[in-house]
Specification:
Order of helices and strands: EEEHEHEHEHHEHEHHEHHEHHHHHHHH
CATH topology of the largest domain: TIM Barrel
CATH superfamily of the largest domain: NADP-dependent oxidoreductase domain
Structural class: alpha/beta
Distance between the termini: 40 Å
CATH architecture of the largest domain: Alpha-Beta Barrel
Largest sheet: 8 strands, parallel, barrel
Oligomer: single chain
Number of helices: 18
Number of strands: 10
Helix content: 40-55%
CATH class of the largest domain: Alpha Beta
Radius of gyration: 21 Å
Length: about 400
């Protein structure tokens, strides 16, 4: 197993993300976790050098923490590292970091977390994390001082400006940042710019969604022909992981594995250090561009200058490009955080943006398309209510 040094620790480069654990046969309820299969996956992981396990408060209707904690408890505490997260990204009327933290320690059956993250800093939740009435950052910094957290960081689905703002706010309090990073989001979600920002600030990168929820493991035969010219033996998933192996500031790659077979395949990929060559990398990034149905916005912002509503049109076009590839809660969350008069639906169809666009983009039509896409995504506030109801049920 390939490893990376992080401060005084030797971490496996591959981490077991537990957001998509195997379910019992015939079940679709996320609470119906197949614990026997989880145990087999944990056994295989530890036997082959995987020593990092990542869970979170809302995963599997609040049960991931319990199941992972029980499975790991079969092994000596010093043989594995456990990461958990504070759900400040959930929409709620109040936030009580102490209560949640104590509950998580109990659910996981541990006295401390090796790694702890502020979950999903994005355009709305950043206000929660920075609000002095909740004292979230200060509380977890204190838990670190007390030894109940060994290393403190955060995950981020927000834009580049949000990431920069939060880094400025936290100073040197955050030891690492977890990003959605893969060869598609390298450009689709400004992954390169976010990676460069963190690297420039000296903040190590943890990766989530390296295979984009499985989408990058299911390439077409034509797409695979392009890649087999270079590496005929590597799978589509291996290509995605090899891309990340070539980024020196990536210290941890978390894969949400749902079967022992996926675990075995990923462990095999991380048994050798074989990052992509420049030619292979160029071919993969070119393939990524062909996978998008992208609107050719260059973010020149000429469209913004004359917009009577003051809309951030390049950001909206970028979100539309992302929605064309796959709908995601993160898209809706981003715009739900804005005042109504700054959302895509606020466009009055005056056409000034289209007339000034050097690329000839019909901007009002794009914004209408984005509004329709957002309407198909579940309301985040309702998702949070449903999660909390499930979590309460599973506490009983």
């Amino acid at each position: 197993m390939l490893t990376n040094d992080f401060q005084e620790l030797e971490l496996s480069r591959l981490g077991f993300g537990t957001m998509r654990l195997p379910l019992l046969p015939g079940q679709t309820d996320p609470a119906a976790i197949d614990e026997q299969q989880v145990d087999k996956m944990v056994d295989y992981a530890l036997a082959h050098g995987v020593n990092f396990f990542d869970t979170a408060h809302p995963y599997h209707a609040g049960l991931s923490e319990r199941v992972v904690g029980r499975s790991l408890a079969r092994y000596p505490r010093e043989s594995w590292y456990l990461a958990d997260k504070y759900p400040g990204h959930q929409i709620a009327s109040t936030y009580d970091p102490a209560a949640i933290f104590e509950e998580q320690l109990t659910k996981c059956g541990v006295e401390y977390f090796d790694f702890y993250l502020l979950h999903n800093v994005y355009e709305n939740s950043i206000q929660v994390y920075m609000d002095p009435q909740w004292g979230i950052v200060d509380y977890f910094v204190e838990q670190k001082r007390l030894g109940r957290i060994k290393h403190l960081g955060f995950s981020c689905h927000g834009g580049l400006n949000t990431l920069s703002t939060f880094l400025d706010y936290c100073g040197n309090k955050m030891e690492f940042c977890q990003l959605q990073l893969n060869y598609l989001d390298w450009t689709l979600q400004q992954g390169k710019e976010k990676y460069d920002l963190l690297t420039g600030r000296g903040v190590p990168v943890w990766v989530m969604e390296p295979i984009r929820g499985g989408r990058l493991a299911a390439l077409s035969e034509e797409q695979m022909k392009v890649l087999r010219r270079f590496r005929p033996e590597d799978s589509a998933a291996a290509w995605a992981l090899r891309f990340l192996q070539g980024l020196p500031n990536v210290k941890m790659i978390l894969s949400g594995m749902s079967s022992l077979e996926q675990m075995e395949q990923n462990v095999k990929t991380f048994s050798t250090d074989s990052p992509l060559t420049p030619e292979e990398r160029d071919a993969l990034l070119s393939l990524a561009e062909s996978m998008k149905d992208s609107i050719p916005c260059t973010a020149c912002r000429y469209c913004c200058d004359g917009c009577p509503m003051g809309l951030d049109i390049p950001t909206m076009i970028s979100a539309c490009n992302e929605a064309r590839f796959a709908l995601s809660s993160n898209i809706r969350m981003r715009f739900d955080a804005l005042p109504e008069d700054k959302r895509p639906a606020a466009c009055i169809d005056c056409g000034k943006c289209a007339r000034t666009c050097p690329q000839g983009i019909d901007v009002p039509s794009v914004l209408k398309e984005l509004v329709q896409a957002i309407e198909k995504i579940p309301d985040w506030a309702q998702v949070c209510k449903d999660r909390e109801r499930e979590a309460r049920r599973n506490r009983m």
